[in-house]
C-alpha cells in the first residue's frame, strides 16, 4: 500500500484538492434536507473494514486525481485562452530564446543521437533581431510544430538515461502536475462559487420580473464562449477529432449549465445558514493565481532543464582524446601507434647459461 501511495502521490494530491468544489457542488441545489453522502461498508468483516475503507478512499482519490490531471493539461493548453500563457506558448518562447535569439547557445549541437541535431530551418527567420511576439501566424504555427516534436524527442532521450540522471527533471514534472491540477480545481471552485453567489443575489434582490434575466447572463456568456471555441476547435483541426479532444470546452459548457440551473432555482437554505459563496470565490481566486503562477514558472524551468541537461549529458558522454592515453586508475590504454625498432643495450648481450 505504501509503495502504491508513493507511486501515485501527486495524483492523490490533485484528487484531494478536488474535494472543496465537490462539497460546494453538493450544496448548490435545493432539497428537503441536506444529507451527507454515506458509503455503507457494514457487510465487510470488522477486521478487514479499515483496509477496505483505505482502499476505497485511495481508489476514488486516484480516479479524481487522474481525471483532473488529464483535464488540466488540456484545459491550460487550449487555444481558447490565447494570448494567455499556455503550455505550448511557454515552450515555444523558451526554445525561441535558447536557439533563435541573439543569445548564443554554448553547444554546437542539441544532443546525440544524430536525429536531434539542429535543423537548418528550425528558427522561423534568419533575422536574429526578430522577437517571439513579432512572428506571423504562419511562422509561429510552423515553429510550434517543430518545437513540440523536438521537445518530445529530447524529453524521451533524457528519460531513457535513467532516473538517477534526471531526478531534478522528475521533481519539476511532479510539481507541474500538482500545480496545474490545483489551478484547474481552483477554476472549477471559482466558477461554482460565482454562479452560486449570483443565485443568492437573484433570490434576495430580483423581486421585480424584468431584472431576473440579468442573473442568467454570466452562465450564458460561459456557454456561448465555450460553444464558439468548440466550433473553432473542430473547424481549425478537422483531422484531429480524436487525438485532440475538446476537454476545456466541455468543462466550460458543464459549468455554464450548472450556472443556469442555479440561477433558475437557487439554493433554498434558511437565512443565516447559506453558503458563503462570495467568500469562497475570493479564496478560490487567490488559490488560482498562486497555483497558476507557480505552474507557469515551473513549466519554464522544466523546459530549460530539458535543453541544458540533454546538452550536458551528451557533452559528458562524448569520448574525448587523452594526452597520456591512460584510464582514470592509471592503467595504460592500448595504443594504435606502430612500434618503433628498439636500440640494443648492454643487457641484451648477456646470454643465459
Name its key features.
single chain; 353 residues; mainly alpha; 0% strand; globular; disordered C terminus
- Summarize the helix and strand pattern as letters: HHHHHHHHHH
Total number of β-strand segments? Answer: 0
- Average pLDDT level: 78
**How many structural domains?**
1
Poorly predicted regions: 323-343, 346-353
Question: How far is the N terminus from the C terminus?
Answer: 79 Å
* Molecular shape: globular
Q: How big is the Rg? A: 30 Å
What's the short story on this structure?
The protein is mainly α. The chain has helices at residues 2-7, 9-16, 19-27, 46-75, 87-99, 137-159, 167-205, 217-236, 247-264, 277-317.
Task: Please tell me about this protein's structure.
The structure is a single chain. This protein has one domain (2-31, 40-317). It is globular, with a radius of gyration of 30 Å. Helix 7 (167-205) packs parallel to helix 9. It is an all-alpha fold. Residues 323-343 and 346-353 have low confidence and may be disordered. 59% of the residues lie in helices and 0% in strands. The protein has helices at 2-7, 9-16, 19-27, 46-75, 87-99, 137-159, 167-205, 217-236, 247-264, 277-317. The longest helix is centred in the C-terminal third of the chain and has 41 residues, at 277-317.
Task: Tell me the layout of helices and strands.
Elements: H1 2-7, H2 9-16, H3 19-27, H4 46-75, H5 87-99, H6 137-159, H7 167-205, H8 217-236, H9 247-264, H10 277-317
Helix pairs in contact: 2-4, 2-7, 3-7, 4-7, 4-9, 5-6, 5-10, 6-10, 7-9, 7-10, 8-9
Amino acid at each position: 500500500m505504501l509503495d502504491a501511495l508513493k507511486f501515485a502521490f501527486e495524483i492523490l494530491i490533485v484528487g484531494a484538492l478536488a474535494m472543496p468544489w465537490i462539497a460546494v457542488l453538493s450544496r448548490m441545489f435545493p432539497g428537503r434536507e441536506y444529507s451527507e453522502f454515506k458509503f455503507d461498508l457494514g457487510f465487510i468483516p470488522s477486521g478487514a473494514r479499515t483496509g477496505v475503507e483505505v482502499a476505497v478512499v485511495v481508489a476514488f482519490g486516484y480516479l479524481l486525481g487522474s481525471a483532473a490531471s488529464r483535464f488540466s493539461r488540456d484545459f491550460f493548453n487550449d487555444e481558447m485562452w490565447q494570448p494567455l500563457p499556455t503550455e505550448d506558448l511557454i515552450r515555444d518562447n523558451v526554445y525561441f530564446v535558447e536557439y533563435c535569439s541573439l543569445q548564443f547557445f554554448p553547444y554546437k549541437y542539441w544532443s546525440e543521437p544524430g536525429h536531434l541535431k539542429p535543423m537548418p530551418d528550425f528558427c522561423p527567420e534568419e533575422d536574429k533581431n526578430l522577437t517571439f511576439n513579432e512572428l506571423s501566424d504562419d511562422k509561429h504555427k510552423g515553429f510550434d510544430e517543430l518545437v513540440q516534436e523536438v521537445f518530445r524527442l529530447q524529453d524521451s532521450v533524457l528519460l531513457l538515461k535513467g532516473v538517477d540522471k534526471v531526478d531534478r527533471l522528475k521533481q519539476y514534472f511532479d510539481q507541474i502536475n500538482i500545480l496545474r491540477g490545483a489551478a484547474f480545481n481552483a477554476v472549477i471552485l471559482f466558477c461554482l462559487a460565482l454562479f452560486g453567489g449570483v443565485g443568492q443575489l437573484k433570490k434576495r434582490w430580483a423581486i421585480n420580473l424584468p431584472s431576473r434575466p440579468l442573473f442568467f447572463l454570466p452562465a450564458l456568456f460561459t456557454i456561448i464562449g465555450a460553444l464558439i471555441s468548440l466550433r473553432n476547435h473542430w473547424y481549425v483541426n478537422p483531422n484531429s477529432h480524436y487525438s485532440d479532444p475538446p476537454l476545456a470546452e466541455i468543462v466550460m459548457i458543464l459549468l455554464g449549465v450548472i450556472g443556469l440551473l442555479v440561477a433558475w432555482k437557487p439554493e433554498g437554505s434558511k437565512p443565516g445558514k447559506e453558503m458563503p459563496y462570495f467568500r469562497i470565490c475570493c479564496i478560490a481566486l487567490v488559490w488560482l493565481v498562486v497555483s497558476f503562477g507557480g505552474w507557469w514558472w515551473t513549466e519554464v524551468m522544466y523546459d530549460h532543464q530539458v535543453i541544458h541537461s540533454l546538452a550536458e549529458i551528451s557533452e559528458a558522454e562524448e569520448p574525448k582524446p587523452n594526452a597520456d592515453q591512460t584510464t582514470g586508475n592509471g592503467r595504460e590504454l592500448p595504443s594504435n601507434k606502430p612500434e618503433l625498432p628498439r636500440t640494443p643495450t648492454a643487457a641484451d648481450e648477456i646470454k643465459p647459461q
